[in-house]
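Incident log, support desk, overnight shift.

02:14 A customer reports that sequence design results differ from what the structure should imply. Their input is reproduced verbatim below. On-call engineer (initials T.W.) acknowledged and began investigating.
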């Protein structure tokens, strides 16, 4: 499992990127979980949920995966997850549009995967730019 010292370092990284990305108006809640403790983890490294109405960001980090990761990769992953907070409006709009009955379940799934691929490419580009600034 992940040691307390590493957890503290990770939380420090998260706070740093939260400030860098000017997300200070959000309250960030992070938890270390296993897939057994939280089914949302679904073998993911991390899961982020944005509650814009309450100005909360919920960040769940996979204990098992983070224990094995190097700090450089952890930094990029934390930045990646926080960058998702800039796309919540587009994601909500997209979900509303494809949520209507005119799309089959198969088509909805394909469109959702395509949207997520585009979002991740944009986030990867932003990470490359932001890491060069430091």
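02:41 Re-run completed on a clean worker. Output:
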């Amino acid at each position: 499992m992940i040691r307390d010292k590493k957890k503290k370092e990770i939380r420090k990284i998260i706070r740093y990127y939260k400030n860098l990305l000017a997300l200070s108006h959000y309250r960030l809640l992070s938890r270390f979980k296993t897939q057994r403790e939280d089914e949302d983890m679904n073998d993911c490294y991390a899961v982020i949920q944005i509650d814009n109405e309450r100005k909360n960001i919920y960040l769940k980090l996979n204990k098992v995966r983070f224990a094995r990761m190097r700090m450089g990769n952890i930094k990029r992953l934390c930045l990646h997850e926080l960058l998702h907070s800039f796309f919540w409006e587009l994601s909500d709009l997209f979900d509303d549009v494809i949520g209507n009955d005119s799309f089959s379940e198969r088509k909805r799934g394909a469109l959702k995967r395509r949207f997520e691929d585009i979002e991740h490419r944009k986030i990867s580009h932003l990470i490359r730019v932001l890491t060069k600034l430091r």
